[in-house]
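INTERNAL AUDIT FORM
Audit reference: QA-55
Scope: verify that the stored structure record matches its stored sequence.
Auditor: D.O.
Record contents follow.
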Amino acid sequence: MNGTQHAVILAVAPHAHRMHGTDMPGTAEEIRVAALAYNAVDATPEELSAVATGTPTVRVHCRSDSGTGWTVTATITAGLDSSIGYAPAHPPIVLKFRKRDGREGAAENTRRMFGRMFRVAVPVEYVRDRRP
C-alpha cells in the first residue's frame, strides 16, 4: 500500500490503522462506499464501475497451519464481489486461533467460533484457503 492509498483509507476511516472486526463496514451501502474509496487510487474506471455494481459480502478466508493443523488463520474482508473479482473495502483483519473441533475444517471452526460476532447486513462467506 502506498502513502496515497493509506491517506485515502484514513480519510474514510480514521481508525483503519488499528482496525478491528467491530470497525468493519456492515451494511451494503457502507461496504460500497468504503470499497470505492479504498480502491480509488489504483483502480481503472472499468474496475471502479464493476465495484460500484458488485454484490456486497464479507469474505472469510480460512486455513489451517501446515504443522499440526490445529492453528487456524482467518482473514476477514468486507468487499464487493464483481465481474472483475473481489474488491476489498478495507485492509484485511487477520485472526489466529486454535481449533475447537479437530473433526471440522478451518472454515467450519471459524464459523462456529466467530460467526455470531459478525454484525453485518450482508452475506458472510467462509472460504477454505488452499494457499500455504
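Auditor finding: record pair retrieved intact. The chain has a mean pLDDT of 83.
Action required: none
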